[in-house]
Write a structure and sequence with these properties.
Elements (H helix, E strand, L loop, with lengths): L2 E8 L1 H5 L3 H11 L2 E8 L3 H7 L9 H8 L4 E9 L1 H9 L12 H5 L8 E3 L3 H11 L2
Antiparallel strand pairs: 1-3, 1-4, 2-3
């Protein structure tokens, strides 16, 4: 077991749908600790840095338009194996494949608007946290 920090973001669709409290409460109930939180609207520069691995992919223009379309809630969470625990709480990226009881399984409809983003490794968490909490 290892103490970790991870980056979680409620995406614009989650904010628009009024799910911020529900999403935060799921991480709290699991036992993770909310260390930092901020609300912001991501600009194109930050979006390109955050999604650098996707910039050349055909779906990037749609992703860019979506992630910059409204406010997001950026958060730092910590706890034992926080990265893996958070990903389990979120569920599969495609909401149609996500298990009931996960955020995406309970509230998600389509893969392009799947409510939350979470770091996929401790290395990604460190990079993403540095971007959103410099």
């Amino acid at each position: 077991m290892s103490q970790q920090s991870t980056f979680i973001m409620v995406k614009p669709d989650g904010v628009r749908r009024g799910l911020i409290g529900e999403i935060i409460s799921r991480f709290e109930r699991k036992g993770l600790t909310l260390d930092k939180i901020r609300v912001l609207t991501i600009d194109e520069d930050l979006a390109r840095r955050h999604y650098a691995e996707h910039v050349e992919k055909p779906f990037f223009p749609e992703l860019l338009a979506f992630i910059t379309s409204g406010p997001v809630v950026a958060m730092q969470w910590s706890g034992e194996n926080a990265v893996a625990v958070a990903r389990k709480i979120m569920g599969a990226t495609n909401p149609q494949e996500a298990e009931p009881g996960t955020i995406r399984g309970d509230y998600g409809l389509v893969v392009t608007e799947n409510l939350v983003h979470g770091s996929d490794s401790p290395e990604s968490a460190a990079r993403e946290l540095a971007l959103f909490f410099p």
